[in-house]
Amino acid sequence: MSFDLNFIGILIGAIMASSVPLILAASGELITERSGVLNLGVEGMMIIGAISGFALMVITDNLFLAVIGSMISGLIISIIFGVLTQSLLTNHVATGLALTIFGIGMSAMIGKNFVGIPGKEFPLLFVNLKENIPFLGPILFGHSVILYFAFLLPFLTNYFLRKTKIGLIIRAVGDSPTSASNQGINVTLVRYSCILYGGAMCGLAGAYLSLIYTPQWIENMTGGRGWIALALVVFATWSPIKVLIGALIFGGITILQLHMQAVGLRIPVQLLSALPYIMTIIVLVVISRDSRKIKLNTPTSLGQIFYKEK
Amino acid sequence: MIKIEKRNDVSPSIYFLTPILAIFLTLFGGGIIFYVLGFNPLEALKFFFITPISDLYGFSELLVKATPLCLIAIGLSFCFKSNNWNIGAEGQLIFGGIVGGGVALLFYGHDGFYVLPIIILAGAIGGMIFAMIPAVLKTYFNTNEILVSLMLVYVAKLLLDYLVVGPWSNPEGFNFPETRQFSESARMPTLFDGLRIHAGIFITLITVFLSWLILYKTYLGFQIKVSGLSLKTAKYAGYKGKTMIIIVFMISGACAGLAGVGEITGPIGQLHRNISPDYGFTAIIVAFLGRLNPVGIIFASLIVALTYLGAETAQIFLQVPKYTGQVFQGMILFFLLGSDYLLFFKIKFLGLKKNEL
Question: Which pTM was predicted?
Answer without folding.
Answer: 0.89
